[in-house]
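can u pls check wat happens w/ adenosine-5'-diphosphate
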Amino acid sequence: MINLLTPEFFFTVIRVTTPILFAAMAAIICSKSGVINIALESIMLTAALTGVLASGFSQNIFIGMVGGILGGMFIAGALAYFSLYLKADIILVGIALNLMAVGGTVFVMFVFTGDRGSTNSIRSLQFPDVNIPLLQDIPVVGTALSGHNILTYLAILSVIGVWFFLSKTTYGLRLRSVGENPDAATSVGIDVRKVKLVALLISGFLGAFGGMYMSMAYLSVFSTNMVAGRGFISLAAASMGQANPFGTLLAASFFGLMESVSYQLQAIGIPAQIVGMVPYVSVIIGLVLYAQYQQSLQKKKTLSKQLKEDPNEA
Amino acid sequence: MPDIITMKQMYKVYPNGIVANDYVDFSVKEGEIHALVGENGAGKTTLMKILFGIEQATTGELYHNGQLVSFQNPQEAIKAGIGMVHQHFMQVGSMTVAENVVLGSEPKKYRFLLDRKKAIDDTAEIAEKYKFKIDPAMRLDECSVGTRQKIEILKALFHGAKVIILDEPTAVLTPQETEELFRELKGLKERGHTIIFISHKLNEVKEISDRVTVMRSAKQTGTYDTESISKEEISNLMVGREGLWELTKGKATPNESIITVNNLSVMDEQRRYLLDHISFSMRKGEILGVVGVEGNGQRELVDVLTGLNKASGGSIMFKGEDISKQSIHHIREMGLSHIPEDRMTMGVATEASITDNLLSIYFDKESFNNGVLLDQSSIDAWAKDRVKEYAIKTKSPNAQVRSLSGGNIQKVVVAREFSNNPDVVIADQPTRGIDVGAAQFIHNKLIELRDQGASILLVSADLSEVLDVSDSLFVMYEGKIVAYFDDVTNVSAMELGRFMLGIEAQDEEQIKRGIYA
Ligand SMILES: Nc1ncnc2c1ncn2[C@@H]1O[C@H](COP(=O)(O)OP(=O)(O)O)[C@@H](O)[C@H]1O
Ligand SMILES: [Mg+2]
């Protein structure tokens, strides 16, 4: 039987939500600045590999982190360069980068390690887990919330950070103006292209942590195509969250929940091939339910408005 | 007063080869209101974009306070004390008025954070100083068009503009709002600001400006003291032809009604009335005008009349048939033509040729078909005739519509819609944004059709157009008809303005006069 109401299950949900959350925050920054960063998938995948290689060869977790960040930002920078400066279609460039990253990471892995499937031959360092004093002693809650990887806590902080950046800073204001009306931004002297470049680089930075979480926290190896669509799921989460960091946190948690459920299903013997579809099917179901909900909300709003305005008519 | 701005021999070619400014000289004295007039496409906006650093001149010199300068981007122009209020507002809807005003030079705290309170205070202060009534904390997309324009001016002032360029500021305003704007502009002038006012409404130019510079097809055709030149003279300089000023129009002789609209309603998704139980008749041999501030149901009315949208209630009787639920094709077949509001998206296929655009509603006519194939030679001959009859300026009927100027694109639409001698024409903003010559051509065509017995509905945001061209008119406000005049000759724009703003409304009996047998 599967039991979903255990603290261990919640622990898993939080664990698998982490990479999605990082990438979804990256997606928010981009969408607010008016660019669609479909290359999140390759940003994560590349960072997952470069992080492992940098930490493996240096045996220094900090250098590993820098390696991962540079990998992610390199892909984001490439996307920015081709789309913003060379004016190529950003969706097509994004698709190309995603396709390239799948093969490219395997190639680089082979060059550096001689492995084709995963980086077993080098020992990557892992980001540490953190036990939170006091919290860890609370029964049930402590089990679910404490003892996560440091990146998980960082991901939660990034939600607040992104919210703060977008709504409180002047650069956030400018970034939103660029996304909503680039002509307006231009007319007051804001360099639209530069702002979009910065947004993409930030998304490369955040997305890199999502990727590194996969290979340097969740696991300690890089394996072929290990991101497995999480970049795309993050785009869906950001869209369901209406590019609001807290709404997006909820949406990302929902997808994390579904992924955790799929692990439980696997444990009770449902074929892995079917179970493997659960997270992705849940994205579709989630998006559909969300659209329905939006519509009914709209109707309710109208009705109550009408009742207020004209009690005789409704 | 010395010149604050001098532009010498400005020449500008766009990458697509269009020469928008052909060695233009233009100078503005400090502290004056200088009108820049010209037909649409004359190059006014381009000249101002060069001044504001949005576009770079191909050749030519720009002097600011006697210094040779060249602004590479708006930021540099803003720094030099130049501000521009664009034809299309440059605003961010989801932000507050204050955030819009300060965007680009935001007040900061702790170096990186936006100081919202100071933004609001600064905005309030500057609004106070120039006597603009504005709530800085309001969300921008909740503001009216008139207010949004004020915000644009405030924005320029906030950024320290001494010279303010206004690109066709009155195009979107009611007469009352225009009066208010003019008061504010005069206030700015008193405080020492210099104003460049772009328009093609000559009444306004006469009223507000000290000097006027006229442009015609990319060239400057003269700068004058406004007092020393008449509207007719300006008009002649604008179009370069004499005698275009007068519209020759005989009295209408309306016959029986051909379309009767009864209790017609349209609701939005939120089940609110956009068109609220309206009734009126369109009579043969008459041009019926529809005026109102944009967004008061005119678009919905046009959409249901032409079949683009379905009514949620009521009926439209056309030749004895209710067309409120009919297809666009059927309605057109019955003899109704439509000049849509937005020619670029609804009126033409910009990538297609003139011929194909003309043909687009006639392709299934027998005379254009040879079995299953189109009869290209008869189509070509027919298209050539249309181009000639409607004086569409082009090298060939096979040219892409995109390559034409606005006025000529609209002529393509009109040529297509009028070529089957329609019984009813729904003309929605038929001359918006096109030059005087083309506008007059279209007006004459409308009157010609009327005299042949067609019934025309003329929806326009340009009050003087409705007052000049239509025979009778009604005013719409919040989806309802609030006034009907059976003879436009004794209606004034100011009077209409009061109805348009909802300050006044006729009683039901008066409005019902618009329903004929
Ligand atoms: N960005 C552009 N690219 C190419 N052609 C343009 C551009 N902007 C304007 N034009 C052309 O330049 C001419 C002048 O336009 P504009 O300066 O907008 O005139 P006006 O403001 O007097 O109506 C027109 O023929 C127009 O089609
Ligand atoms: Mg213009």
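The longest helix of chain B spans residues 175-190.
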